[in-house]
Design goal:
The chain is α+β, with helices and mostly antiparallel strands. It has one helix and eight strands. It has one helix at residues 20-67; strands spanning 85-103, 109-121, 127-132, 136-139, 144-153, 163-172, 182-190, 206-220. A hairpin with a 3-residue loop joins strand 3 and strand 4 (136-139). The chain starts with 19 loop residues before the first helix and ends with a strand. Mean pLDDT is 81; it is low at 1-15 and 49-67.
Length: 222
């Protein structure tokens, strides 16, 4: 015989020998199984997205680095960097040009450059190095170069020190400056010696003239 209970649309019918309670639990089990499958699908999809991102990460990083390369400044031909070189480091200097009062060959006295003393800042204004007599540029990563002026042009500001093209003559340490061969000093402001105050009574005296400038460091393009 078949026993049947009419409990409406959601009723469950049990055949002889079947447990009605177990039959009523079947829909719930189906829902739980479906939810588990959906959760597994979400986990698989998330894993696939993560793997794709990790695979593309290096390429995206390389593209970002390439797009962030420092462009070379617009300068007169006389202080252009050699062909085949690219900017590898940029710094903004703020400090002083130091002058000493000395006698010249004709017996007159004039302020003679002793050297710079300046902090080197990156694009975020963080101090990343120091510029001193030599002239020498040293970064906080330990790399250092010394250069010799090869050419100059007058600054756009007549009261400021010239723009320079500098050839690197020596290296020290290992870091961002290790492969640098050429340096430009541009966008100078200030730094000129005083117009007076250097004479026999003041021979040997020193004076400092505040200045700022941008330095571009070049290395052979890779």
């Amino acid at each position: 015989m078949r026993r049947e209970e009419d409990a409406g649309a959601d009723s469950v019918h049990a055949e002889d020998g079947e447990d009605p309670a177990e039959l009523r639990a079947l829909p719930r089990k189906k829902i739980e199984t479906s939810a588990t499958i959906d959760a597994m699908r979400i986990l698989v999809l998330a894993a696939a997205v993560t793997i794709s991102f990790l695979a593309l990460g290096p390429a995206l990083g390389s593209a970002q680095t390439a797009s962030q390369k420092e462009p070379a400044p617009d300068v007169p031909d006389a202080i252009q960097a050699p062909a085949g070189e690219e900017v590898v480091v940029y710094t903004h200097a703020s400090g002083s040009q130091i002058y000493t009062c000395q006698a010249t060959a004709d017996g007159k006295f004039s302020w003679t450059l002793k050297g710079p003393e300046a902090d080197l800042h990156d694009r975020k204004d963080k101090v990343i190095g120091h510029h001193s007599a030599g002239p020498t540029w040293k970064l906080s990563d330990g790399s250092e170069v010394t250069g010799k002026a090869a050419a100059h042009v007058d600054s756009l500001d007549p009261d400021s020190i010239p723009w320079l093209l500098v050839k690197v003559v020596s290296h020290a340490g290992t870091g961002a400056l290790s492969s640098v061969t050429t340096i430009q000093r541009v966008r100078t402001h200030g730094g000129q010696p005083p117009a007076e105050g250097c004479d026999a009574p003041h021979q040997g005296d020193e004076t400092k003239s505040a200045y700022t400038a941008d330095y571009y460091f070049y290395a052979p393009a890779k």
